[in-house]
Hints:
The complex is a heterodimer.
Chain A: H1 2-5, H2 12-20, H3 24-46, H4 50-66, H5 77-93, H6 96-105, H7 111-124, H8 130-148, H9 151-162, H10 167-174, H11 178-199, H12 201-212
Chain B: H1 3-14, H2 20-32, H3 34-51, H4 60-76, H5 87-109, H6 116-132, H7 150-160, H8 170-174, H9 188-196, H10 205-223, H11 227-238, H12 246-263, H13 266-279, H14 284-308
Helix pairs in contact in B: 1-2, 1-3, 2-3, 7-10, 10-11, 10-12, 11-12, 12-13, 13-14
Amino acid sequence: MLGLFAKKEISDEEAMRGFQNGKAESFDILLKRHSGGLLRFIMKMTAGNKIHAEDLLQEIFLKIIERKDRYDSKQKFTTWLYSIARNHCIDYLRSESYRRHSSLDAPLSDTDQAGAVVLEIVKSEDPGQEDKIYNRELKELLDLGVNSLKEEFKEVFILKEIEGLSLNEIADITGSPLGTVKSRLRYAYQNLRKVFSESGYFEERQKAKGVSS
Amino acid sequence: MKCKDCTELLIDYMHGELSSEDKAAVKEHLDSCSKCLSEFEEYSQIQMAAQGEVLPEVSPEVLAKISEAANEDLKNKRRPFWKKWSYSPILVPALTTAIALSVWFYYGYDGVNISPEVASKKREMAYQTQAESVEPESRSMGAIVDDNPVMDHAVVLEQQIDSPEEGPVSQPAEKPQSFAYEELPASPADSEISSSSQFAEESDSANLRSQKEPLSMAAQKQKEDRCDVSIRANEAIVNSTTPPSKSAQKKSYKLLAECYEQKGDFDNAISNYIKLEQVAPEESAFANSRIEEIRNRVELDHEQQRKLSDPVPAN
């Protein structure tokens, strides 16, 4: 019932215009709406921990605030937002601070090795907690797979499948033709499938299906 | 369709990006090829995994910091003022007009407001400088046309006031660039003058105006015992290339004569009284009486001088 009286939600573009006209509450709407997704995007793009990703999130929003007058409300807000975020992440990945950071973290860059580790986890799990383990294992596997992708495949896959943007928007964000975006998405899937196969994930799923049916 | 072609299209198929033709072809192939079907299913599982990613929660402190930054930004640098809607249509013209009006009121209308003491000092200075600047050669109309309104008010002084130190003089003395005396705020003194002024009856008004000002200034100068200036001004009028009106000539000669008389230059005084007589026969009685008096005074003076420088007898 309350929903009937609730004010119709304003669009991102309207909110951004409000912010441009000096309304702080409009900005808070945008912040509330997009901070989670943006944080997830940053975490996936940089494969960093949450605290570090939040630093980047803050930097990106400061850029948004700083450049608010440059935003043209004819453009979709998410396109503008993710363009800034994507460029910021790429700059960060090429920066000295990232290299220092990543060398300390010693990420698993070798997919075979990563797959083996995951396979180990899968095999050792207690079948009673199947669902929970399945979700955790899937998440870790996906992270491993995404991290193994080359940057240009990775960004397209994250934007399309995790953040749910349209292919046209991704073309605008990455500054590439739509055809390129599509083929990059295809390569991303092919590489991920390889990672998943090597981890034995599909086999496990097949087996689980056979048992339950 | 071959498996290789199908594999190429599977991702687009999954995202609904294929033409209806290609879509039908892929569907047909998948129905018959278990290898391609399992590949498609694996892609779908990956997609589901990606779409099942939960949203991380941003810590409240970070959100508060960002929100605060936005607030600060809005406080510090509001939109540039020319972009503010409230300024453009109403406030800008209103403010501009207000500023223009205030400047006009302040400088253009009443002159600078200053205390009476300063005003009187300034007035004296103004008289001096104006008097010095009266140079007929540099004037356009041949006669003296001075922009300074001091002279307008000299008329007031001449006709109305015995003591020139008081009254409306102080204000106009500082009023810059008010060329046309008709535009002056009508004070009682002004209206009295214009109605009683003999110049008003004259037809040649442009000429008149050009001469009225120096003339009246000269009168004022005379009142202030500044005969030199008065003489200079009147000479200029009388000798100007455009012949002054009769009344102006009359007044000039009269003033000249009086000035010379006052100065003690009796020869010039007498000659000017004679000229006055020529120009204005109706003044001849007055002129003659003055001439008579001057001659008497000359006589007297000679008498006195003779007495002072005694032993030398007069020839």
